[in-house]
């Protein structure tokens, strides 16, 4: 009788086919193996190429000055993005995201290039700096320096010009 039972059980198992493990299940006492999912594509930004901008602060004609200023701020606003590193980590969702204005000093050489690196002069944030994670503040600074460090201006007779550029970071 036992032989017939085992034979019947064996034939039923063979007829059922190959066993597949359930996703998200492990036997008691055994660790669950991680499910390998592909990583999301990393956003790779190439080096910024600024158009050659007018030195609008030297213009005496108000119309040309306004046009140069608009072109300058258009480039900055199109290229600057709220950095993902300033957003809270998934394990710390209650961290605040810094919002506000960063003032950056930019020195423009006579040949039109920006003396590297631009310097963050002051942060005017919605809350005190101590309320935000230091890594988030560094990410905002790095984004401002990335965009403003790529600027190019027309050549000038002046040895060097100094600009104080406000950059506003807000969350969407």
UniProtKB/TrEMBL annotation:
Signal peptide start and end residues: 1-21
Keywords: Signal
Source taxonomy: Bacteria, Pseudomonadati, Bacteroidota, Cytophagia, Cytophagales
Stated name of the protein: TonB C-terminal domain-containing protein
Keyword presence, Signal: yes
């Amino acid at each position: 009788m036992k032989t017939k039972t085992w034979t019947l059980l064996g034939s039923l198992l063979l007829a059922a086919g190959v066993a597949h493990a359930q996703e998200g299940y492990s036997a008691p006492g055994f660790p669950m193996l991680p499910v390998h999912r592909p990583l999301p594509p990393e956003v790779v930004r190439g080096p910024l190429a600024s158009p050659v901008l007018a030195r609008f602060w030297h213009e005496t004609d108000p119309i040309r000055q306004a046009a140069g200023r608009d072109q300058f701020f258009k480039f900055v606003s199109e290229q600057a993005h709220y950095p993902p590193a300033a957003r809270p980590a998934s394990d710390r969702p209650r961290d605040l995201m810094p919002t506000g204005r960063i003032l950056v000093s930019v020195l423009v050489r006579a040949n039109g290039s920006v003396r590297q690196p631009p310097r963050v002069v002051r942060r005017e944030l919605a809350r005190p700096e101590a309320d935000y994670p230091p890594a988030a503040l560094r990410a905002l600074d790095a984004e401002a320096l990335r965009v403003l460090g790529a600027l190019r201006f027309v050549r000038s007779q002046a040895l060097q010009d100094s600009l104080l550029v406000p950059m506003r970071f807000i969350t969407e």
